[in-house]
């Protein structure tokens, strides 16, 4: 895997990952805080074929989506010998009553029997989050519990 970082004077920083087919996918982080998802063509890696501006919330949610499956996969492997244990990733909707609230306000374990074992935000995993952690719309919550408990947790977050 080949990672590239390029300083863009007056603009910000371009970070890219070279894909197997020669294209590059990356992010331009602008000095003013804006984020742009980019895809470059295999023939000219300096030319941008696609550019998608992202809001901070969208960038955070995308980071969570990309990093969450790896964590969930690791947890599922650890729980493989434990029948009845389900590990899932749930996105906290922006309009959830818990967006902007602390994790403890969900009372997730008491209400559903499900434990929130990690919160992934902007590609950063917060393992074993404290009840005082402030939740944001777009956060990816990694939960562990029974299948029914996970379904209840999903409904609770969307309520």
UniProtKB/TrEMBL annotation:
Xref: SUPFAM superfamilies: TrkA C-terminal domain-like
Biological processes per GO annotation: potassium ion transport
Every RCK C-terminal domain range: 75-159
Organism: Micrococcus luteus (strain ATCC 4698 / DSM 20030 / JCM 1464 / CCM 169 / CCUG 5858 / IAM 1056 / NBRC 3333 / NCIMB 9278 / NCTC 2665 / VKM Ac-2230)
Name under which the protein is recorded: Predicted regulatory ligand binding protein, C-terminal domain of K+ channels like protein
Pfam families the record matches: KhtT_N, TrkA_C
PANTHER family reported in the protein's UniProt record: K(+)_H(+) ANTIPORTER SUBUNIT KHTT
Keywords for this protein: Ion channel, Ion transport, Transport
Any one GO MF annotation of this record: monoatomic cation transmembrane transporter activity
